[in-house]
Design brief:
By secondary structure, this protein is mainly β. Helices cover about 5% and strands about 30% of the residues. It has a single domain (about 1-100), classed as UDP N-Acetylglucosamine Acyltransferase, domain 1, CATH 2.160.10. The strands form three sheets. Strands 1-3-6-9-12-15 form a six-stranded mixed beta sheet. Strands 2-5-8-11-14 form a five-stranded parallel beta sheet. A five-stranded parallel beta sheet has the order 4-7-10-13-16, with no helix packed on it. The protein starts with a strand and ends in a 7-residue tail after the last strand.
Amino acid sequence: MVLTVQEARKRHGAKIHEGAKIHAGAIIHPSAVIHSGAEVWNDAVIETGVVVHSNAKVCVGAWIQQNAVIGEGATIRYGVVVGKSARVADYAIVEPNTVVVVEPDSN
């Protein structure tokens, strides 16, 4: 079941722009920002400070960790983990059960 934007805002407290589609089974932190046209599907988890840009899709069971950014039009398929502070490029497709992380500084 997809929530109305008003229902999603009330349930999650997050900044959810008009035109976004949020499934009732999604978990979204109040500090997250979901832009117009973005979709967050059931069992997806959106953590603190995450930004999901316009027309991006976060599919079933994806886990987007703190301060990650999902680029415009990107697709995060089911079971993907986008690690803390990672950035997914505009229009990228991250295939199922993939983990995206920020490479640690080697210095």
